[in-house]
Structure formats: C-alpha cells, structure tokens
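Incident review: delayed structure delivery

Summary: a single-chain prediction request sat in the queue longer than the usual turnaround. Root cause was a stuck worker, restarted by the on-call engineer. No data loss occurred. The affected request and its eventual output are reproduced below so the record is complete for anyone auditing the incident later.

Affected input:
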Amino acid sequence: MAYVYQGGVALDYAPCRYGASRAVFRGPARDLEKPYVAVLGGIETYGKFVPEPFPALLEAKGCCQVVNLGAVNAGPDLFLEDSALRGIVAGAEAVVVQVMGAQNLSNRFYRVHRRRNDRFLGATAALRQLFPEVDFTDFSFTRHMLQALQRSSAERFEEVATELRNVWLRRMAALLALAPDRTVLLYFAGHRPPRAGRAADLHRDPLLVDAEMILQLRPQVRSYQEVIATDDPVQALLVPDLERTAALSLPGRAAHAEVAARLQMALSQMLK
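Output delivered after worker restart:
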C-alpha cells in the first residue's frame, strides 16, 4: 500500500503479516524472536500519511523493537479473535493499546468483518425490529450505517449506542487482560474524551467513547497516556489533493513525536 505525495515521492508502508495471522500491518516486519514492545491500535497507530509513526519513533529512541500492530479501522475484535496476534501480545515485554472506537465490533445489533472491522456484514433481527424503516442492504461500513440510524431516530439510536458502549467496555477489558501489569493505555485523538451523557458525535474518533468509559479501564493498566493532536497543515501538503481532507483529520508528525516521547517515559519505568 502506498500513497503518492505531490512531487512524485511515494510513502511506502511496507505492508507485512506476522505468523499465521491474515491481518496486514505497517512494516517493515519486526523479528519476534528478539525482545519487543507491541503497539495495538487503529489508523493513528498505523500512521497513515505519516512517514514515521510513533511506534517507529519510539523504537528510534532506544526502546527495544516496537511491533506496529496498528490497522486502519481496527476495533478490539481484530486482536481478540486472532490467535496469532494474541500470541504476539503474550510474548511482548510491554504492550501499548490505543483507545479505539466502539463502532467496529460485533454486537447484538450487527456483525462486522473479523479483520476489516469497519465492514458492516449485516443487521440482526433485533436491529431490524428497532429500525423497521431502514434498508440495511444500503450499507457497507459501520459509521455510515450508524449515521443513518441516528438521522432516522436519535432516540432509538441511543439504544444502539448504549449496546456498543457496553460491548466496547467488555472487549477492551478483555484485550487489556492479555498483558496484565505491563500495558499502557493510549488515548490519541484531536479532542479530549467527551463527558458521559452527551449526544453521540459520529464524526469524531474514537466513536462513542467517553471519559467515563476510559476511567473504568484505567485500573487495569500500568499507565494511561493522553495526547491531543492538533491539525498539521504541513501534512496535508504531502498528500494528493483528493486525500488532503482525510490527512488533516489525522495526527501529524508533531503529534506522533509527542506520543513517542510520552511512551518512552512510561515504558522506561516498566522495562527496568
């Protein structure tokens, strides 16, 4: 996978797989026979449009190998349902888990693809009964589907949102439990976690996750790090015109550098 910058310079993501996993991550691949830190997350961890995402910067700071397990549109299900990835987490010296959105996981209302968690596979009978006016064959992606439900009925949508938040808490707790006492929880987004009880904003990531939800997870981890990224107009200049809006919505180089610095301090205490 590569995105061509203006000027003809291509950003090579060196896609790779680990072991028997079919999931594709940003490379180059790391040697799992040597000590490593595993970083799990979504598009921010993957570092789309960024030449050196924070896992690479963290490794360059002298930390042991850092395995970037960030995947575009990943949810907790990607890591929980893949035995090869669970094995990588189990073998890590330390683990960083990015706070991912609550939309990309299977629940009692709909199912998602096991690897491409943003892919909407189908509504359950419960969701069709809750929204009988909606034709679910129109949707391929979870965010698009949820936005349509919210427009159809904000009140009924909150029942879906409550289910997603509850499932997210259970799945994230299970993910953090894979590496007890050696996990850093990372919130990396363009805004602070919203207060609980506010109407869901389906245009801001991580979707449907509020400050209270994160607070419930913090006792399970050794460290919690929160980095609020600001727009990086320079980053937008490095991508094709059609992708500039998407690039501006993602953390830029300065934000990735800040995350790497914060993680270096947190991990130095854990890896002594």
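Verification: The two ends are 37 Å apart (CA to CA).
Action items: add queue-age alerting; document worker restart procedure.
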